[in-house]
Hints:
disordered N terminus; Beta-lactamase; D-tyrosyl-trna(Tyr) Deacylase, Chain: A; five-stranded antiparallel sheet; five-stranded mixed sheet; alpha/beta; 21 strands
Amino acid sequence: MHRRASHAVLLRLGAALAILVQPLPALADALHDRVAAILAEAGPGTRWGLVVADESGREVLAIDPEGRFMPASNTKIVTTAAAYWTTGGTLELPDGGGGASVRLVPGAKRKAPDVVLAGFGDARMSSAPDCVRDCLATLADAIAAGSRRVGRVIGDDRAFPDQRWSPGMSWNNIPTRSGTGISALSVDDNEIRAVVTPGPEGAPPLVALPAYYEVRNLARTVAGSEERIGYDRMPGSPTLIVTGTIGTGAAPETLRLGVDDPAHYAAWLLTGMLRARGVTVEHMPEAMHRPLLPEDDPEQRGEAAPPGPAPQAALAKLDPPPLREDVVTINKLSQNLHAELLLRRLARIRGGGSIADGQALVRGMFAAAGVPEAGISLSDGSGMSSYNRVTPRAMVRLLDWIARQTWGDEWRASLPVGGTDGTLGRRFAGTSLFGEITAKTGSLNATNALAGYFTAKSGRTYTFAAYANDVPDDVAATAFMDRALVAFAEGN
């Protein structure tokens, strides 16, 4: 009996050890198959890439890890991390905060001086009536206090080369706020807002917007409460074409429109502010740009290049909020303009301030992080470029490296939190990843992305990158992506 009992105990111990040692690959395979099955439910067409790594950097799940995917706004991970890496975590750039300034210069053949409104990359200047900091009105007040007549107001964005759109920007995005022009002189997020209000049934709706744009109103008011307003504007055109229908019972619809020449628009706004303060402005607003030249390409010029024009003695200058606040805006809200301006401000550290300068700096960060060049290749700072490509493996490697930096925790805090805020505010609610996933989203035509960190049911933290490309029009890829991540988190 004793021998039989001992033998039985040994058998049970052996079985227990076998469970501990042997099934781990089987469990991993089963979880892999479960995740893959969830993604497969999306049907044919969608191309998936997914890598999950544990706290040691070991990959525990990989689906097409070396596939090259469009990352969409996952690109902002790179841009904001580069800002921390470049500055050693201080986020202090050698551009004086990038604030706009005004100065008076002699007018050409005119008695009245011209006003030069210069920008240096600040993304947050505002013309809002309730503005309390970084306000264009502050500059208007300074001019009006000393001058009652000026010749022209000139918007000067020569701090950066004139690259208002990155390579690979889709032209149809240009009329929208997502594709607004990038300029060293920016105001109100380089957006113009139009409000469409229903009229009488059968009549065109009312379209109210600043006089900077004119309206061709082809829309109609119909019975009901549905809103199906569309709009378009050819690049470079001041004419907004409004189409579609809006119901008599519908709430007013706000359209957020892009601006092609932000420096000119800022000068136009300042001209109006000066006139409202009783200052005579003799001429229409103008803009000054710096052409993109061969010496703006670091591959052609070597390492040395003169930056844009240095700030001259200013009559008044704005002091923007700390750049940390802007990084949070970029990552939480996925703000495209702010990301592009950040890339160009970083680029000025290298000299010329061009997109190429910014990407050269980014490649230096990839090298420091041990990310192979083929793993991430980018053409912009926001993710709007259709030329951008990343591999899930490379993005996870970058995220793992970020987490190990002294500034990693602060950077991670700028990401949206599942079910809580930012672009993840409506995702993962009611799941085990509610409040347990911090990640950057991404969305572009036929593209969805999500990359960051999550804490699984086991309490272990994982780094991940998930991509869906070539998504058919009728497929909601994010729903399958979220389910797959929840399944992994609950199985670990």
